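The instructor's notes for this session suggest beginning with a concrete chain rather than abstract definitions. Hand out the sequence below and ask the class to guess, before any prediction is shown, which regions might be ordered.
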Amino acid sequence: MSGRAGRRPRPAGASSARAPDFDAASAAARPAIRVRSPRELRRRRRSRAHSCWDHLIAAPLWPLHGANLGTLLRTCDAVGACLAVPRHRWVPEALARGNTLRRPSCVHWVGDPLGWLARQREAGTRVVGVELADEAVRLADLPAARGRTVAVLGHEQYGIPDEALDLLDLAVEIPMVGTGASLNVAVAGSLVLYKLAGLL
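After discussion, reveal the predicted structure:
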């Protein structure tokens, strides 16, 4: 005879499932969506800032509010784009104040916005302007950039100057249903950059 006690027979019709323990109950209460930890995110991100990939450039060439430039620079880092800004005396400080990244990003300094845009187009770069125009395509229909592309952002009150409109290959419009006339440079630029980068 075995030294272990015999197992008592289970009554007919009794279920073999055990009552859920505390761990199973707590697991069932957890949300179905798991947020990645900071450590996981660091492993997925680049360990250092990207160099100039010279593929996608956000160009707020007539900025009004400096804080928006730093925010847009952070979006450029997120999508692998560069930022082109005019050489105004207050722009470097605005970038430093608004950008919360710990590493430097790619910034192109522009002395003559119209001349710079003309040279980009002559070199074969596609120039896309964010503007409310009759010929503009909707943001949802904007294809990802297949070649070097500049996304031009105008003044937040007056838009892209008339003399720069002829330098655009395409205008893109961001639909709005509210009472505002336009979005700020950081928001508009971020939406367009994500579409051009193929991330939306």
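Then share the key points. The chain has a mean pLDDT of 84. The two ends are 71 Å apart (CA to CA).
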